[in-house]
Specification:
The chain is built from twelve helices and no strands. By secondary structure, the protein is an all-alpha fold. α1 crosses α2, α4 packs parallel to α7 and α8 runs antiparallel to α9.
Length: about 230
């Protein structure tokens, strides 16, 4: 077989792989880790055999999604580290990572179920930890943040912003930015002049409240009036 014939096959394989991964993350975001490879294949419109050739089981697929996400976090941390100003470096990573997290509704489930003890993933996790430690250490040394700021605060920040982003995603998609700025001010980082956000309206806040499981459960007097 000539090289000219091989290249389209490799491109098709990568397209199928990306289609499977994007479909999997949508289903995982909606339903958690209870999805099956057969469901992913059906939703993606590809054969079950195509999915199993790329990913022998759901764990392999989740690990691939984890690797993809940590590769992005590593890229963001490395880019932020190019700043000469430690405050700007840390701010850029926190806001870029928060932006990425706000758009990724499957992230928490993927992090919870990835095989983080496997060597490749553990190595990637440790590498990101070194990058984040470096950004935090430089900012603390420069007096850019409160002196007790730690790498653990970075992860807590992303957890908190992720919770806000998930709850407001379909109601006020940019709302997380306002609360990110509040946290950054609390950490001691100065507010960016370009970061102007408005509080959510009362109606938007109301829509973020948890929905009752059924109409009946929302009306405790209903059964007595029936």
């Amino acid at each position: 077989m000539t090289p000219e014939r091989q290249r389209p096959l490799r491109a098709d394989a990568e397209r199928n792989r990306q289609l499977i991964m994007r479909t999997a993350e949508r289903l995982i975001a909606r339903r958690g880790p209870a999805v099956t490879l057969n469901e992913i294949a059906r939703e993606a419109g590809v054969g079950v055999g195509t999915v199993y050739r790329r990913f022998p089981d759901l764990q392999a697929l989740i690990d691939a999604l984890f690797t993809e996400r940590f590769t992005t976090f590593l890229r963001l941390a490395a880019a932020a580290g190019q700043h000469v100003d430690p405050a700007q470096a840390l701010r850029q990573y926190l806001l870029d990572a928060a932006q990425w997290r706000s758009e990724d509704r499957a992230l928490d489930t993927i992090l919870a179920h990835a095989g983080t003890d496997t060597e490749p993933i553990a190595r990637m996790r440790d590498e990101l930890g070194r990058h984040v430690d470096g950004l935090v250490r430089a900012a603390v040394t420069a007096g850019a943040v409160r002196e007790d700021f730690a790498s653990a605060d970075v992860y807590a920040f992303l957890h908190m912003i992720g919770a806000v982003a998930d709850r407001t995603h379909d109601i006020a998609p940019g709302a997380w930015r306002r609360y990110a700025e509040v946290l950054l001010l609390g950490f001691g980082l100065q507010r960016s002049p370009a970061a102007h956000t408005s509080a959510m309206t009362e109606e938007q806040i109301r829509r973020t409240w948890p929905e009752p499981a059924t109409r009946q459960s929302a009306d405790p007097g209903r059964a007595g009036r029936a």
